[in-house]
């Protein structure tokens, strides 16, 4: 998709959402919406869209619902694990920040990885330095980079690598 077309599609989509959210096409509402859509479109003119680095291969397309199912499974699992920790009388919390490594090369792949980690209760992405992620972990199981990577990152990364590289 050309840069101009991407710009117009993003601007138009944002403006449509603005109108839908405001339930009005009054001149002042459209003007504010157009300015907001323009500012946001200019801020994201580097093409970092959900499909900007997506590999449109049959395997990658089939991996999308598999990734979503895996994410939902991990979401439920981590909610139950964190609930057990919080409800335990001993409160076995061992918080810390661990360094993990990702093999993902694409910016969008890393963004989805960090968001998946952050949305999973008990973990929060604090910083990204190159291919290293710093994760706050409520119950640190290991400070070893390889062990922490296997525990936190590897599952998500397996699917995202096929989809984004």
TrEMBL record:
InterPro entries tied to this protein: Cation_antiport_E (IPR002758)
Family of this protein: Belongs to the CPA3 antiporters (TC 2.A.63) subunit E family.
Bilayer topology: Multi-pass membrane protein
Keyword Membrane found: yes
Name this protein carries in UniProt: Na+/H+ antiporter subunit E
Short name of any one Pfam family annotated for the protein: MNHE
Transmembrane regions: 7-25, 31-51
Cellular localisation: Cell membrane
A GO CC term attached to the entry: plasma membrane
PANTHER family in UniProt: NA(+)/H(+) ANTIPORTER SUBUNIT E1, NA(+)_H(+) ANTIPORTER SUBUNIT E1
Primary localization class, coarse: membrane
GO molecular-function term, one example from the UniProt record: monoatomic cation transmembrane transporter activity
Keywords, ordered alphabetically: Cell membrane, Membrane, Transmembrane, Transmembrane helix
